[in-house]
Amino acid sequence: MTKPDVTLENSDAVYDYYLGHRQNRLLAKAAYATLAAKFRPRVRYADGARDAIRALVRSNTSLVLSVNHLSESDPYTVAAAAWRSPLRTVIGRTRVLAKDELFEERKLRDRIDLMGSIPVFRGKNHGMRAVNAAGQQMMDVCATRMSRGDSVAIFPEGTCNEGDPTRLQSVGSGVGHITSRAIKLGVTPALLHMGISYADDVRNASVYFSEPVTDLPDKPAAIARLVHDRLQEAVDGAVAYGRR
Known about the structure:
Helix content is 46%, strand content 15%. The protein has 244 residues and is of the alpha/beta class. A 7-stranded mixed beta sheet has the order 1-7-6-2-5-3-4, sandwiched between helices. Helix 7 packs parallel to helix 8 (174-184) and helix 8 (174-184) packs across helix 9 (220-242). The protein is globular and about 50 Å long.
């Protein structure tokens, strides 16, 4: 299928394409391994979290991975941390939400398509009313991909934190709606939270996984609140370990 131009006016074709797009898993793993060698984040876990994540991956549980957003380099840190964690197994089966402007330049788009990205049209760029229909399509695509065995990774703050990097910004409802829609399709997902903290530069990151959550509320707003609280715990862990 020919790649459509990623524009808001073309959102129907965009999401039809990303509903079925599959990257080359071998090339994706090679790219993740390269980023892991370059960025080398220090990965830590809450008590029991590493074994719990490993068990979820082995059971083919679909994951909703939420990550705090500090820098435009965060996707590289996430990829490197995934390679250095039990998440290595789900590389090539994880959809990563990314802002639509990253898909404009062909060479960059090829790279992020390789990482499994799905474009998001943000209200801050296009206006909230204009992106509503596309946002509904995006959430449906994510839920459907999860029903097919994929996982989803998201920066639920929606934008880089330009204030206090130790305090999470508000979490949008999108993560709740994606998870809720997946549940309605028969998926039993787990929420996973990755906190990032940087010391002197983006290649000196501390990454912390809080314990996964498998007992989920039904309502999107309740899921979003849960994500906020657990992701703040992960950020606290990353900050604490980054100071050692």
